[in-house]
Amino acid sequence: MSTALITGASRGLGVVAARRLAAQGWTVLAGCREPARLAATLTAADGDIRPIPLDVTDDASVEATVKEVSAHTDTLDVLVNNAAIVGVMSEPAVASVEDLRAAYETNVFGPVRVTRPFLPLLRRSAVPRLVMVSSSLGSLAEMSDWRWDNHPHLAYPSAKAALNMLSVMYAKTVPDVLVTVVNPGFTATDLNDHQGTQTVEEGTDAIVAAALDTTGPSGRFLDRFGTVPW
To answer: Which domain of life is it from (predicted)?
Structure first.
């Protein structure tokens, strides 16, 4: 039986990905700030989903989560760094450091804060996988083209671009872990006030595929259709 930890798993992409993996017989540890609220929405039909408290912006919370997960299992097969926020939507000419801080704390520092202490558990898996949930807005190639006109704000795209670089560095320097960066696509979630053109099921396709993949290669950026340019 495989075990996954998903951050930001109380709603949207996180909870749907959790349900899809649990439906395949996985144990899914659903990290979220309000686990009781998530627990109230789950039924036996959802499979083995275990809500656990996790705030990716807080060192003490992450440390406590590591202890709790270690009590559940001595092996973690997949870590999905999914938790993210849009942050302040301000254009580059007027954006301040404070405008970027919240987005970076969750979207960049959060995955680092979570990944490092969970690597020992991951490395006990036969094929450990690290899934980073990014965005096409973090693609320098795509944002240099037409997408820039659609989202002229500094915090979220630059944070996702930073996450992409972190992921490349993990792939290069942690060769025993299969690292995959995924772009869910423009999905209707709370993150964009449900303006997305994809369903949440479609948005989780790339996440679930990356979690199930055991062959790699490591260091790819993928969406539900294939390769995304860096």
So the answer is: Bacteria
